[in-house]
Amino acid sequence: MSNTQNEPVITSYAKAPARTVTAGGVTYGYRELGPKGGIPVVFFVHLAATLDNWDPRIIDPIAKGRHVIAFDQRGVGASTGQVPDSVEAMADDAYTFITALGFDKIDVFSFSLGGFVAQALVVKHPELVRKLVLTGTGPKGGKNIDKVVATTYWDILRATLTRSDAKEFLFFNRNATGKPAARAFVNRLNERTADRDAPIKVKAFRTQLKAIQKWGRSTPDDLSKLTQPTLIANGDNDRMVPSILSEDLHRRIKDSELIIYPDSGHGGIFQFHEKFAPVAVEFLGR
Fold first, then answer.
1. What pLDDT, in 10s, does the model give residues 193-226?
2. Which residues form the AB hydrolase-1 domain (predicted)?
3. What angle do CA 74, 77, 79 make, to 5 degrees?
4. How many folded domains does the chain comprise?
5. How many degrees, rounded to 5, is the angle at CA 231 between CA 32 and CA 234?
6. Which domain holds residue 266?
């Protein structure tokens, strides 16, 4: 669909239209915003996340100058089908979705589980990805990734007992800087009021956890083959995907850039969105 002169470009994720595309027997829910044309930036979301889990303070600055696409994985939110039990199968779905939209070259912005999926996609389809942003994530076979399951269940319990959002525990430090940053983040996720996504189902969530466990226990990929410019970012105290794994990625991906934010956790890029968003925009625009 081409933009006519009188059709304003939407650069606010809160107002991005919900769309669907069907491929391989699955209907994928997605949202798009920003000016059309050129190489799109496709956003790969985290564990248990739907389209409503992207921080508008990260997406909106990128969408000012770039065509941005966020999508629901198979079996999650607005997408039909069953959640796959492996990261590699999730990457196959991502490939199906991207090619169904007619793209043969994309930039990738990924967070957490989305970063696992992005790596699996690049390993299998190196020609598809021009640039790679890996945040709050780690490599296949990364030490202690399989402990995500226990950490996640523990924090869901803590959140339930305090009637808060589990992400406040999982993504942020429970200290004087972390707590307000967590609340601000959760509030930003509610800026979209119309046409919100369906939350992930428990069975789908459990299947994702299984896939993460499998990824953590698998033989590492040879990341030295990656030639894409890569930006890696995390907080210095990631309880979900240990921060040291970001350093591991940086060591293994040639010429990659690494940013570790102080006094922050898994959601370091969201806590430091004012610093990080311009860096991401500059990196993707280079």
1. 999 999 999 999 999 999 999 999 999 999 999 9
2. 41-270
3. 40
4. 1
5. 95
6. 15-285
